[in-house]
Amino acid sequence: MAAPIRISVEHVTKRFAAGALTVFEDLDLAVRDGEALSILGPSGCGKTTLLRCMHGLADIESGRIVLDGDEIRAPSRKVSMVFQHFGLMPWKRVRENVAYGLELARLPRATIDERVDRYIEMVGLRGFERAYPYALSGGMQQRVGLARALAVEPDVLLMDEPFGSLDALTREVLQNELLRIYQERPRTMVFITHSIEEAIALGDRVVVLSSRPARVREIIAVDIERPRTMASVIAHSRFVELRDRCSRLVLDRPAA
Amino acid sequence: MTDWTVRLGSIAVVLLVWEFLAPGWNPLIIRPPSAIAVAFVELVQSGELQAALVTSLRAFVGGLVIAVVIGVFLGVVTGRWRTAFNALDPLVSALYSVPSVALIPLIGFIFKFQGDAPRVAAVTLFCVFPVLINTQQGVRNVDRGLLEVARAFNTSERRLWTDVILPSATPFVLAGIRLAIGRGLIGMIVAEFFIGLVGLGYLIIQYGNVFRIDRMFVPVIVVAAMGIVFMGLIQWLEGRVAPWLRREQ
Hints:
A: 256 residues
């Protein structure tokens, strides 16, 4: 039995440059409660824009995006986001960056301290609480970004190519961390990527978008059991077939 | 060699060369550092130097503080709101293009050549533009990505300022203040030449007029020292209010 739908994107059209550029048109998509949904598409297809619309950071021209029955028009505290560019405040120490969303939500100090400690621990940054972002590697900076997003304990976690700017080794370490964190407490997650492996390994389903204007080409269920690691997914007997299917769809080639 | 041995060594070399070459020149034009040191002690013993320094410092610090307050305020307002920018930019550009020295006599008239006020105003005029323009740039240069992060986490307008815009503008403001210090010292001396006939500027004129080059050099060196001390103060302040910038040093 499928879980109830958490976010639904209904007939959504988004244009740029005063209508001259259609990013996506009449797009439909549903994110189920508790699932990890990967969105895969060629670069420039509007994946990031779609995610921004889902968070209410960008307006849409027509259609609607609904979260738990309410139309999204502005960022909601139920949702938080991990950014490709990390988006850390250089003038805040690790602790203060992680506490950022909690402070804006005006939670009591004790709750903030407890959560910050817990999520810093979860992403493996204990001992770096007082460091400024410039002193951290890219991978560690994104751990801070992840902790900041998780600390507000959102119903939905949006991730915009969060590991896209990391080197391959660091990326795999963080992918495994994210798999572990999801395993500990599955929460609805939308994960944008242009890496096929990453989309399969992290997602319960993979939405493959076409190039602009983006349409949903196909939604592929990833029938690989959890708990997963990157290594276990790649070694899984289903992996090669899933990867080939995704790559044909992304590259727009007909089935062999 | 450490940085400091090089710095002090270079000063020592200049002083030594000066000391040995000076006797070959007309003593009305050049005196050796040793003679200036003697003059320094004389001016301290007579109390002239301290009195002049206090008078000059009053005008300089007062003018700088007022300039920072006005400059940061207008810089923030014009950096953030387009209408304010359009309203003020022509005036700022015009005033900034006029050599500030040309306005010194006008300032004298406005403040009736009395007390510290005209000299404070002169220092303010010299200092305010670099602070204003730098603050404006700082406020405008806020990273778009960080503004989006703040929106994504549902920031209030007030927290947007304290979390993002002001910290991001801080290094620009400090750089503006550093530029202002140099200009402010010029303003201070020029105002003392033309408006007040007091302070370190007046000592320079007074001893220059009677060809006491050794004594004339004393206030010049004190002004240079003021520059160094105030720059150091700003650097120290930067470490306190913007410790995340240490990576650049």
